[in-house]
Amino acid sequence: MTEIDELKVIRDRENAKKKAIQDLKNEMEKQLAEKIAECNEKSKNVENQIINDYNKGLEEIKEAENKKMIDALDTQKARAQVMKIDLKEREMEEMVYETILKYIKKSD
C-alpha cells in the first residue's frame, strides 16, 4: 500500500468518525427537541389547569357572594314583613283604643 493509499484510508476513517459524530449530534438534537416539545406541552397543560382552577374558584366565590346577597335580601324582606305586621297591629290597637274611648265618651 502506498502512502497515498494510507492517507486515503486515514481520511476515510476521519470522515467516518466525523459522520458518526454528526449523526450522533443530529440524533441528540432531535431528542432534545422532542423533550423540549414535551415539556412545553406539559407546561401548557399545567398553565391551562391553573387557569381553569382559578376561573372555577372565581365562579365559586361569585356563587357564594350571590347566595349571601340573596340570603341578606330575604332577611331584609322578612324584617320588612314583620315591620308591616307590627305597624298593622299598632294601627289596629289605636283603632281599638279610639273605639273604646269613643264608647266611654258616649256612655258618659
Oligomeric status: single chain
Distance between the termini: 157 Å
Determine the number of helices (DSSP H or I, runs of at least 4 residues): 1
Instruction: Please indicate the percent range of residues in DSSP E strands (runs of 2 or more).
Output: under 5%
Which blocks of ≥5 consecutive residues have pLDDT under 50?
none
Structural class: mainly alpha
Task: Tell me the helix content.
Answer: over 70%
Q: What do the pLDDT scores average to?
A: 93
Write the element-wise H/E pattern from the N-terminal end onward.
H
Shape: rod-shaped
Radius of gyration: 46 Å
Give a short account of the largest sheet: none
* Overall number of strands: 0
Question: Can you describe this structure?
Answer:
This protein has 108 residues and is mainly α. 97% of the residues lie in helices and 0% in strands. It contains one helix and no strands. The model has no long low-confidence stretch (mean pLDDT 93).
Give the topology.
Elements: H1 3-107
Give the key terms:
about 110 residues; mainly alpha; 1 helix
Tell me briefly what this model is.
By secondary structure, the chain is an all-alpha fold. Helices cover 97% and strands 0% of the residues.
